[in-house]
């Protein structure tokens, strides 16, 4: 085979379709990497952001692998479009420069001649490849027992225990429920926040408004026992008519800590049994009576003297009464950042702690030192009813501490607001606002109920209290010396064994209680939509480029595959067809780099770049004279024979010297 026929074979390609198969393999590879990228991010979604840099690298590798696969598929397809275009159209040398450089230089696509010609689809695959690089890099992204007492002896209530008095006092000063030390770690686990809901039975104060407004008369309080009791005072003692901004009477019917006159240490009677019938009996639970005045309009200046205009309308007196009820609580506990918060989500009043009505000014005269009389006497709770008596005594102690803080007055001396005189422990609580001249806060009845709830919640801060039990096992006390450590994520239960060493995992699991655990942490978040917007655009555009390449091979080129290797370009440009172009300067020197170095970039003159050239058949002698010639089938056959004999060769030539052909079904058009 002579040199010309070798050049022809080199340029035309083999036609075996191998590169077309490789083109689709690269496209499938890029698509598979995109699916892998999605699956990898989906596996991280919602998990703690551990090893962020490593995961980012994995995602980057998948993204660039997808980009590489789709890009190579487009480049292979583009090579075929390049040859299709130059075989069909005669273009300026500048346009040919842009066409062959498009896969490496995005600026090359700005040559308008590429888009003006009917061969413009040749630029599309390259444009797809250049645009794909931007989004692929941009979107890579994550809880005294002993012998029975002698006959006729019994225990009876005396007063709240010092431990509880201390707990209630701390809660009042803190203005919130007392939290157990290390409660969050023991309940939630180290580093975790948690929320849980518990329900239990405890006392609660049920408050009823009896009067509101200047000159209003309080109605009687009707009790569940069937009795009715009048308020011990009315609103006339409150501002603006009276001199008190706060007046609380909480001791009516209070249990006497001295039940007998002659007693020894600890209240033990000196005399022998039998004792009076009502000795130690819980006869009634004192009603809390509170009257208070609020400033009608805090935004306006408050009159400082009764003689000032607007004094009579500057204050709103109110009066309410609260009764101690046994109630059912539903409470939500939250531990966040070592802080505890509680919220009573549901409160149901069940029954009065002692269902009687206090009868003031009536002496008991029953042989005891307790001069309280209430009706009906059949509802008294006696020490001999041990379980009921002890529960009621505990409720009474809780109420006693509330009443201790509430009882007393705040008086405006000489009816002037400049020097309030407090005779109550209420100023140590959140019920009184020191910033507002020690006036009670608005909505005092609700605040009293909430204050009582916080005292009760404070008990839960000390599991040693007898009344505190396990949430999961209400029949077992929590302060028995057995401690169960909280679960950590994916860890087995740990238990702290007592001296007997009998605790085990099964024992600990019985005390587990449902809770919602959380912690502040960086989490992986996979935005599926954003990633697939990028990949969908890239994959579709890449697919379009591959389809154009396949069309160039199968439909336009008869299955011939070409490339843009250096040897192919050299083979297509050798020969006398381009010798007529003056590639050197007018003085005969070559156009080399501006620095005079032969290794510099060659600059072709602008007038040369305007010459129009194309790829096709060239005659070894004179040119064809026209780039489009119609031949009959016999003439085409003769031409093929001439090509084989060496009369014509394939290559680049100037317009008028090159004959461009297209293969159509049933005919050949030149």
Automatic annotation (TrEMBL):
- Locate the transmembrane regions by residue number: 20-44, 56-78, 532-553
Instruction: Print the keywords alphabetically.
Output: Membrane, Transmembrane, Transmembrane helix
Q: Provide the protein name.
A: Uncharacterized protein
Its source organism is Apodospora peruviana
């Amino acid at each position: 085979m002579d040199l010309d026929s070798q050049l022809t074979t080199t340029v035309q390609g083999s036609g075996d379709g191998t590169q077309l198969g490789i083109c689709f393999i690269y496209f499938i590879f890029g698509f598979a990497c995109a699916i892998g990228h999605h699956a990898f991010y989906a596996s991280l979604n919602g998990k703690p952001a551990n090893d962020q840099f490593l995961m980012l690298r994995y995602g980057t590798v998948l993204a660039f692998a997808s980009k590489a696969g789709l890009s190579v598929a487009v480049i292979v397809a583009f090579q075929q479009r390049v040859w299709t275009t130059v075989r069909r159209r005669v273009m300026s040398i500048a346009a040919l420069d842009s066409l062959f450089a498009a896969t490496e230089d995005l600026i090359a696509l700005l040559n308008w001649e590429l888009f003006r010609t009917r061969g413009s689809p040749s630029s599309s695959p390259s444009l797809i490849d250049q645009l794909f690089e931007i989004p692929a890099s941009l979107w890579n992204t994550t809880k005294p027992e002993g012998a029975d007492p002698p006959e006729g002896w019994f225990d009876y209530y005396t007063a709240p225990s010092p431990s509880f008095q201390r707990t209630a006092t701390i809660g009042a000063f803190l203005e919130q429920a007392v939290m157990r030390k290390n409660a969050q770690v023991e309940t939630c686990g180290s580093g975790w926040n948690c929320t849980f809901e518990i329900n239990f039975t405890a006392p609660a104060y049920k408050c009823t408004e009896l009067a509101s407004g200047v000159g209003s008369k309080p109605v009687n309080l009707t009790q569940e026992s069937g009795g009715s009791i009048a308020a011990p005072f009315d609103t006339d003692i409150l501002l603006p008519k009276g001199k008190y901004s706060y007046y609380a009477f909480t001791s009516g019917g209070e249990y006497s800590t001295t039940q007998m006159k002659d007693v020894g240490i600890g209240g033990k009677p000196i005399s022998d049994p039998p004792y009076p019938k009502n000795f130690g009996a819980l006869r009634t639970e004192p009603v809390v009576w509170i009257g208070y005045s609020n400033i009608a309009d805090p935004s306006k200046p408050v009159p400082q003297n009764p003689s000032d205009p607007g004094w009579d309308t500057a204050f709103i007196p109110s009066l309410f009464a609260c009764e101690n009820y046994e109630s059912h609580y539903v409470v939500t506990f939250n531990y966040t950042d070592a802080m505890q918060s509680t919220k009573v989500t549901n409160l149901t009043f069940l029954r009065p702690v002692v269902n009687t009505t206090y009868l003031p000014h009536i002496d008991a005269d029953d042989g005891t030192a307790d001069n309280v009389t209430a009706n009906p006497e059949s509802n008294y709770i006696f020490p001999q009813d041990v379980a009921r008596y002890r529960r009621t005594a505990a409720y009474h102690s809780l109420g006693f501490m509330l009443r201790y803080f509430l009882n007393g007055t705040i008086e405006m001396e000489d009816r002037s607001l400049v020097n309030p005189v407090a005779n109550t422990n209420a100023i140590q609580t959140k019920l009184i606002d020191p910033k507002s001249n020690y006036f009670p806060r608005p909505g005092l009845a609700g605040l009293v109920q909430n204050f009582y709830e916080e005292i009760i919640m404070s008990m839960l801060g000390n599991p040693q209290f007898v009344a505190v039990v396990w949430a999961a096992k209400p029949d077992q006390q929590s302060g028995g010396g057995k401690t169960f450590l909280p679960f950590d994520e994916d860890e087995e239960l740990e238990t702290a064994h007592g001296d007997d060493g009998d605790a085990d995992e099964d024992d600990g699991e019985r005390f587990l209680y449902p809770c919602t655990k959380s912690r502040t942490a960086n989490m992986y978040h996979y935005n599926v939509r954003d990633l697939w917007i990028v990949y969908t655009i890239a994959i579709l555009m890449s697919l379009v480029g591959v389809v154009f390449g396949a069309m160039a091979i199968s439909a336009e080129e008869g299955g011939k595959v070409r490339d843009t290797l250096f040897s192919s370009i050299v083979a297509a440009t050798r020969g006398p067809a381009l010798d007529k172009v003056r590639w050197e300067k007018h003085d005969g020197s070559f156009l080399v780099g501006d620095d005079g170095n032969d290794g510099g970039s060659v600059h072709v003159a602008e007038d040369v770049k305007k010459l129009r050239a194309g790829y096709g058949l060239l005659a070894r002698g004179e040119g064809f004279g026209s780039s489009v010639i119609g031949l009959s089938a016999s003439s085409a056959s003769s031409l093929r024979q001439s090509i084989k004999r060496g009369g014509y060769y394939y290559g680049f030539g100037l317009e008028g010297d090159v004959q461009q052909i297209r293969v159509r079904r049933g005919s050949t058009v030149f």
